[in-house]
Amino acid sequence: MRVGVASTEITPPVGIQLAGYAFRDRPAEGARDELTMQVMVIEHDGTRVGMVTADVIWFDAEWSDEVRRAWIAADPQLTDVWFAASHTHGGPQTAKGMHPLLGKPSDQYLVWLKQTVLRLADQAAADLEDVTLFSAQGRCSFSVNRRRLEDGRVVMKPEDSGPRDDCVTVVGFRREDRTWKSLWFHYTCHPTVAGGYDFTADYPGAARRWIETALPGVQAMFLQGCCGDIRPRLVDERGAFYRGGPVEVERLGRLLGREVVRLLTDMETEVPYLSTESHKVEMPLQTVAPRPFLPDIEASRLYPAWRELVRGKTGLRPVLHIRRLQISERVVLYGFSAEMTVEYGLWLRRRFPRHRIIPVGYVNGCVGYLCPARYVDEGGYEVEESYLYFGLPAPFSREAEERVKRGIAALPGLRNDQKEEAGS
């Protein structure tokens, strides 16, 4: 296997709108730390794949497809490209069609971002060299489920009994001189430690800085998990969530970074195998409007702009893109163009127990929150409010869960799976 890497800072200028929090009412005023984009080219047995990771909230689906096609046109050997967002809520808006309360994208910045990807792609292709592949898994536990049932309603508060994913997966690419060329590190938690009006890569950026300081010369690339209902465990004396600042960002980033570096002593050699598959699934929406999540929703700032966004969208069937990247006999990435809740990632690991599964959200787009069927019954933010921000005319229906699982099953069989598909 050969890999090449390249990276650069992508922090926008002050004045561009931030994405992620509806309370913001003005553009970015500064930068707490830099936003970064990394590009990797992976090559093995005639197959070549691109991987892009970046400190943005998500990638626009049409933009991703445009850049992917331009990259493949310049490099016909390329099979596919993954655009994997960290989902930081301290980055610029990078998708069109979202509710204006989440920030409006800058066309100029998106053009520059496309040019940056293609420039880094050339650099990464020129940097290809032989590597040995390794992986390891550990744990980090600063996350918590954010769906608590109170007085018959689901509210956004810490729920220790709810599902979460503490798994930390590290994939290492080591040069022939036994130095680490690059690391992928995967964790499942919303990067919502910080708020405010400064650009920040949040805890994934702090973890990356910690890793790259501990291992000079390495390029650390963060892969976000199915974190739709998972956020940092920053809880006050009343049992409610609070926003942190630089101290909390660095503390949580250090916890994750230390675990990644510790796992380098547990790394196991992987047998390289490179293949990529994809499948599209139409996702059904509810036909009956849900009860309003917000009181007096007609008078809120949210509803009028949403009504304009969905004008003419009757009968819309959003399309979920499911991608799979197998890079060894054991290590497999599943990518989703959506904000997936944690149970999907946990289900994937149960389904393929012999493989080292890495579920990745926010890949090549984001159609909205995809929840298990029981969440649709329970309600809460992910079901009753989030669809308004994504410009959807209604929430996803109970059938969505089964559609996702059938879409995963529709992909060709995994290498070395030995009929291991157990669990549902």
From TrEMBL:
This is Neutral/alkaline non-lysosomal ceramidase N-terminal domain-containing protein. It comes from Polycladomyces subterraneus.
